[in-house]
Amino acid sequence: METYLFICGSGEYRSPAAARIALDLLREHEVDGIATDFVGLIDYETARQKINSASRIFVMERQIAELIGEIRNFSGRIDCLDIPKGLSYHQKALEDKLREVLPRVLFN
């Protein structure tokens, strides 16, 4: 099974929401064999482990992609979602932005 990993700074708001919505979209499109997970770079050791086992990575901001290179030489695909800081997990604006952006990157 492949794992799509969503990464933000803290792992509290954006990446858990993105992982949840991505899994919903994959199920809606009847895509099997892909699990979603999330992590915040603030937890370096857990982030390193999850990055090492991910098949594809989605970052909330470009600078996070740069930091991944410092953690591991990841050879898979890294997509930037350009989701700004400051949106909280239950905020409708975050969900709306993710539902707009994720289909474009998940299915391309």
Question: Care to describe what's here?
Answer:
This protein has 108 residues and is an alpha/beta fold. The chain has a single domain (2-106), classed as Response regulator (Rossmann fold). It has four helices and four strands. It has helices at 14-28, 44-53, 62-71, 92-106; strands at 2-8, 34-40, 56-59, 77-80. A four-stranded parallel sheet has the order 2-1-3-4, with helices on both faces. Helix 1 crosses helix 4 (92-106). The chain is globular, with a radius of gyration of 13 Å. The two termini are 19 Å apart. The model has no long low-confidence stretch (mean pLDDT 87).
Radius of gyration: 13 Å
Structural class: alpha/beta
**CATH level-4 homologous superfamily:** Response regulator
**Which runs of at least 5 residues are low in confidence (pLDDT < 50)?**
none
CATH class: Alpha Beta
How large is the count of helical segments? Answer: 4
Compute the average pLDDT.
87
Most strands sheet: 4 strands, parallel
Reading the helices and strands in chain order gives EHEHEHEH
Q: How many extended strands?
A: 4
Count of discrete domains: 1
Q: Roughly what percent helix?
A: 40-55%
- The rough form would be described as globular
Supply database-style keywords.
single chain, about 110 residues, alpha/beta, Rossmann fold, 4-stranded parallel sheet, globular
